[in-house]
Automatic annotation (TrEMBL):
The chain holds residues 549 to 840 of 969 of the full protein. It comes from the Bacteria. Residues 24-278 form the EAL domain. It comes from Marinobacter zhanjiangensis. The lineage of its organism: Bacteria, Pseudomonadati, Pseudomonadota, Gammaproteobacteria, Pseudomonadales. This is PAS domain S-box-containing protein/diguanylate cyclase (GGDEF) domain-containing protein.
């Protein structure tokens, strides 16, 4: 099912902000309609424990079912939504939907399940962001520990003190904070020093050639070693081969995410995936009788 969502489908949109003005206006109007008419959908990609193969959670990744243009990938509209401010409304929808879906999965018995939600720097710069998260958790009934926010390093480029303070308050509530695309920003280490993070996601740019390129291997091992000393969990993104997985496992990377395990998929397919690979909860108490 994921095959048809290949790159070629999206080529008509420019991924940066240099698209024609008229195209941008059209896209902005279309996106407004998408928000109103429910054309957006969250796909989910499993995050797997490297040692056991158990599914520990998933990342929510937005997709847009455009009425004429088909399935549109986030790179084609998130930057524009950030530019127009529509990311605020879109981000609220994502957060609420991800929490609702998480509640459904927890209700189906996946007790360890945790959902990771991408948050734009623009959202983090909103004064009400902490309240938004708190309200969404309360409304949906999701425990803060079941939610993780993925932020990029550039999130603390502006309004640093306020953003760090907001992240700290969310952290205090029990919400996880992961640095996404780690290593691709230009000042990763100084940000690590000030950000109240719980997890690092190694960018797939490093994982891709970890077997063939000694520098990429050294960088990946360095990140893992540093994270270990900081007591941070690490997820490797873009794990596509068994060789990637073996290297990462050997170097004590706890969590893996990538096409080797599954591509991002609609909620229903993900629920079925959990049911067949259904192992996210079997180390917990009740109902764990099936492996006796
Ligand atoms: P990201 O957060 O770094 O998400 C990981 C991206 O890598 C996803 O692309 C995922 O489909 C892709 N990926 C996962 N495993 C593999 C693999 O093994 N190989 C390869 N080649 N790619 C893999 P996607 O879904 O197109 O999302 C792209 C970016 O769009 C995300 O990068 C994130 O920055 C942004 N994004 C997605 N959903 C949201 C959202 O709800 N809100 C915001 N603000 N941004 C979002
Ligand atoms: Mg992410
Ligand atoms: Mg990433
Ligand atoms: Mg990325």
């Amino acid at each position: 099912r994921a095959k048809q969502h290949g790159r070629n489908t999206y080529q008509w949109f420019a991924s940066d902000l240099n698209v024609e003005a008229s195209e941008r206006v059209e896209l902005r109007n279309d996106l407004q309609r998408a928000l109103e008419q429910g054309q957006l959908e969250l796909f989910y990609q499993p995050i797997v424990e490297s040692r056991t193969g158990k599914i520990r959670g998933s990342e929510a990744l937005i997709r847009w079912h455009h009425p004429r243009r088909g399935l549109v990938a986030p790179i084609q509209f998130i930057p524009l939504a950030e530019d127009t401010g529509q990311i605020i409304e879109l981000g609220q929808w994502v957060l609420q939907q991800a929490c609702r879906d998480a509640i459904r999965l927890l209700g189906m018995g996946y007790r360890d399940y945790r959902v990771s939600v991408n948050v734009s720097p623009v959202q983090l710069r909103q004064e009400g962001f902490v309240d938004l998260v708190t309200d969404t958790l309360r409304q949906t009934g999701l425990a803060p520990e079941r939610l993780e926010l993925e932020i990029v390093e550039s999130s603390v480029l502006y309004d640093t003190d306020q953003v760090v303070d907001r992240l700290g308050r969310l952290r205090d509530l029990g919400v996880g904070i992961a640095i996404d695309d780690f290593g691709t920003g230009f000042s990763s280490l100084s940000y690590l020093k000030i950000m109240p993070v719980t997890k690092i996601k190694i960018d797939r740019a490093f994982v891709k050639d970890v077997i063939s390129n000694r520098r990429d291997a050294a960088i990946t091992q360095g990140i893992l070693s540093m994270a270990h000393h900081l007591s941070l969990e690490v997820v490797a993104e873009g794990v596509e081969t068994q060789a990637h997985a073996a290297f990462l496992r050997k170097n004590n990377c706890q969590l893996l995410q990538g096409y080797l395990f599954a591509r991002p998929m609609p909620f229903k397919a993900f629920a079925e995936f959990l049911a067949t690979r259904g192992n996210a909860s079997d180390n917990e108490d009740a109902g764990g009788t099936d492996d006796t």
